[in-house]
Design goal:
It comes from Serinicoccus chungangensis. By secondary structure, the protein is α/β, with parallel strands linked by helices. The chain has nine helices and seven strands. The protein has helices spanning 16-26, 67-70, 87-96, 108-119, 152-162, 167-174, 178-192, 197-206, 218-227, and strands at residues 7-12, 33-40, 50-54, 77-82, 100-103, 124-126, 214-217.
Amino acid sequence: MAGTEPLRVALMNDFEVVVRGLQAMLEPFEHRVSVVELGAQSEVEQSVDVTLYDTFSEPQVDGDDFDEVLESDDPGAVVVYTWNVDPALVEIALAKGCRGYIGKTVSGAELVECLERVASGEVVVEPATSRVPAAEPHSPGDWPGRVEGLSAREAEIVTLITQGLTNNDIALRTYLSINSVKTYIRTAYRKMGVTRRSQAVRWGLEHGLTPDTMRRDVDDESSSQAGA
C-alpha cells in the first residue's frame, strides 16, 4: 500500500491490557496501520477504516452483545480476531456483515496484510481452515494474568470464572468442550496456587482479571504524553 495513508484502525476488547497488547503488536507496521482508538466496554467513536474486535473473554459473534460493535456510528469494516474458528461462527459473522474473521495463529505481519485486504474490499477468513488446534498455539499480544504465568486461554477461563460464569457457561462462551474447560481450570489453578473456585475468584479480582471501562483517542494520548 505504498503511497497511501495508513489504515485507521480501532481496537476493541473489554480489557485494556488486551488492546494495549494488540497496539504493541501492530506498532512495527505503523506506516501501514495507524491505531487511532482503543476501546473497552465502549463503542467506536471515531471514523475508522477497520475495527478489530478481539474476542478474549468476550461474547462470540452469535450473541446480541456483539451487534453493538456493528452498530457503532462508523466502525468501518469489522474484523473478528479470535481463537474460535468454528465454521458456524464464521458463517454467522459474515452474515451479520463482518468483513474479516482472523485466527490468532497469524503473525503480526499476516494480520496487517489481512486488514489491508479487508480495507481494499475483500472478505477475509484466515486461516482458511476451520479446524481448531488440539493444543493451544502461541498467542501474540498480551492478556491479564500473563505476567503471573497464565497462558492466554487459561487467563480467559479465569476471567470468566471471576465474572461468575459456570463451567457450562464458559464452554458455551468460548466454544470449548466442557472437558477442555476443566483442563484449563486445573492447569490455571496450579499456576495460581489455588484449589477452590472462591479462591480463584479472589485471585482474579486481585490480579486484574475483571473488565475495564475505557476509551482512548490515541492521537490525543500521544499529544498528552509528548507534553508531559
